[in-house]
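lol ok so funny story. i was supposed to be doing the assay writeup but got distracted and ended up predicting the structure for this chain instead. priorities right. anyway since i did it might as well share w the group, maybe its usefull for someone
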Amino acid sequence: MAKLPTIEGCLTALVTPFRDGRIDFDGLAKLVDWQIENGVDGIVSVGTTGESAVLDVEEHVAVIAATVRAAKGRVPVIAGAGGNATSEALALTKASEDAGADALLHVTPYYNRPNQEGLFRHFEAIAKATKLPVILYNVPTRTACDLLTDTVARLADHDNIIGIKDATGNLVRGGELIAKVGDRMAILSGDDGTAFPLYALGARGVISVVSNIAPREMSAMWDHVKAGEWDKAKAIHYKLRILNQQLFAEPSPAPTKAALSLLGRCSTEVRLPLVPATAKLLEELRFEMKTQGLL
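and the output, tada:
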């Protein structure tokens, strides 16, 4: 029997706000409230955009727990629990469960460059160790390894592997995933620019960076798709095109935090080796956000 995905729609890959070098938990709670009030379907906590790579384990788990508390069950919280050692990923899986996460996002093990059998066994071990829904995360430009479609098809046999975040940016690959496993798991766009095209192919949602800034608009795009209002969804896709490009014009999430600072919702602080967005990009963001009525 085909599995029905339980998580879909616009899922915000939420930033982790800092103030004076520390996590701004008050600001985090306010961001979660604002996202939910503007219609998002879920929150991804401590993913790439949440600067998982620069948080220690204690901070990582504390942010997940704080996000769960702030969400108050209104939308699912998907915890970034990936690691480049399977033992680390299993430990973060258990900690995310204990923190109250509703689902897990597991990236391919970065730097090690495992082969497909190694990737399969890594994710199989995670699926067997938890009862929570697991979303795979394939982003080869960051991890230096690529989770191929045939391996995803093998993993789809596990009942609690319910989806994959496809951040290849390749619509042909996305379409191949949907064709081969779309009846058994939710294919989620991992790049805002591919969200609408992948919706047209059958994707069930997006893990979005742009929704940090435009949660209502990105949520509405999905809502229009579900309602069959494709022209309205397409209009939002083109409206947000330039903003999407700007948010990746410099290393993410510095541009996203710069845009949030213009909204008064987050400081521009990121942790080294990232640095804040340049003054030039900040002004370009200000102009585009005013043009789109976001400021």
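The domain at 9-229 is CATH 3.20.20.70 (TIM Barrel). Confidence is low (pLDDT under 50) at residues 1-5.
back to the writeup now i swear
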